[in-house]
C-alpha cells in the first residue's frame, strides 16, 4: 500500500511507525530538528509540543530502507525513501506491505495509524494553507478556547448554536430533501485587531474541524478552482481580507478585480476575478458541509453579490472595544483563574507567584471599572488594548497609571501614519513629484 506524501495519511503512517518499538532500533534513520513547537515535526513523525522547553529537540525516524516488524501476528515491512520526482525535485515516498493476500490486513493497520494520529492531535486544530494551487501539509495549532476571544456573549452563543445546528447530521438530510446546497457562510467584518481571525480559529477548534485558509491576494482563477475542488467535506474555509478581491460592479458585472482597491486603498494587481470567486463559492466543486468564513475590514467595498444570502448567511460585526469589552479584557489579563505559569526556572516562577498573589489581593472588579472608565469606548481595538495590558501584565495598578500616556502615544502614531499614507497616495496620483 502506497501512501502519498501530499496526503494526511502519510502523517498517520509515519507518526504511528515512529511510536513503534522497532523504530527505536533501526539502523538507517533520518534526524531532524523538530522546528515547530507544535506541529508535524517536518513530517518525520508527528511532534506534539510537550512543553518541556527543550531548544531544538532532535527527532529520529526510519529512513531510506525497508524495515520489518510484527503486528497482530502478521509480518509487515515498511519502506520509506526519497526519490527524484517531477522536474528532478526530491520527493518522499512510503509504503507498507505484508506477507499475505488479504488487503484488509493493511487497511486495518492504516486504521490503527489513523486512530493513533487522531489521539495525538485531539487538542489541536489542523490548519491548511496553500502554495499556489496546492494545499500544503497541515500545521497543528493548539485549539483556542472560545473564552479567550472577548466578544459579546449573546453573539457568541448565537453563532455557536447556528453552526452546531448546521453540523447536526439531520440538518444535512433536511437540506438535501429540499435541494438546498448544504453549506453555510459567515461574514465577519470590522476594523483590524477586533478578533475576526481569532474567532474563526476558535470556532474551528470548538467543532473539531480542520481550517483551510485562503490568502486572496496570492490566488489566481485556476488555483482557486483547484483548491476548492480539493476541500474535504467537513471543514472551515477562511477567506481572509475578502475586500482584496471585491470590486463594486458598475454596470459591467464581470469587471475585472484588478481595478479594485484593497483595505489600504492602494490599487492592487490581482489575478483572481470576482466572477470566478462567485462561481467557485456556488459551484459543484464547493464541498458539501463546509463552513465558509470571510473576513474584511471594509464591508463597504464588497460587491453585494458576494455577500448576498445563500453565499453569506450571517453578517457579524466585530466592533472596536466598548466599555464591556475593555473591562473584560482587563479581567482576562489579570484574573488569576486565567493565569497559568508554565516553563521558566523556579526563581522566575516564584516571582510570578508573588505577583499573582499581589494581583489576587486586588479588588479586580473595581480596578477593571476604573480602567474601562479611562479608555474611551469604540476608539481602540481589542488587539491594541490587549497588547498594552500584556506589557503591564504584572500590575493592574501600573496599567491604570500608564493608560493615558499610552493612548496619547497611540493617537500620535495614528496621525503620523495617516499623514504618511495620504502623502503616499498623493504621490501616486500620477501628477509627479511634490
Ligand atoms: N476580541 C478579542 N479578544 C481577545 N483577543 C483579541 C480580540 N481581538 C483581537 N485579539 C487579539 O489580537 C490579535 C489580532 O487579532 P485577530 O487577528 O483575530 O484580529 P482581526 O480582526 O482578524 O484583524 P485583521 O482584520 O487585521 O485580520 C490576536 O492576537 C488576538 O488574540
From TrEMBL:
BCS1 N-terminal domain: residues covered = 1-149
Q: Does the keyword Mitochondrion apply?
A: yes
What is the first-listed, main subcellular location in coarse terms? mitochondrion
Q: How does it sit in the membrane?
A: Single-pass membrane protein
Q: Has keyword ATP-binding? A: yes
Where does the record place the AAA+ ATPase domain?
182-322
The record, for Pfam families, names: AAA (PF00004), AAA_lid_BCS1 (PF25426), BCS1_N (PF08740)
Q: Which reaction does it catalyse?
A: ATP + H2O = ADP + phosphate + H(+)
The record's keywords, sorted A to Z, are:
ATP-binding, Hydrolase, Membrane, Mitochondrion, Mitochondrion inner membrane, Nucleotide-binding, Transmembrane, Transmembrane helix
Its GO CC terms are:
mitochondrial inner membrane
Please provide, alphabetically and separated by semicolons, the GO molecular function terms listed in this UniProt record.
Answer: ATP binding; ATP hydrolysis activity
Which cell locations does it reside in?
Mitochondrion inner membrane
InterPro entries assigned to the protein according to its UniProt record, in alphabetical order? AAA+_ATPase, AAA_lid_BCS1, ATPase_AAA_core, ATPase_AAA_CS, BCS1_N, Mitochondrial_chaperone_BCS1, P-loop_NTPase
Query: What family does the database annotate?
Result: Belongs to the AAA ATPase family. BCS1 subfamily.
- Provide the protein name: Mitochondrial chaperone BCS1
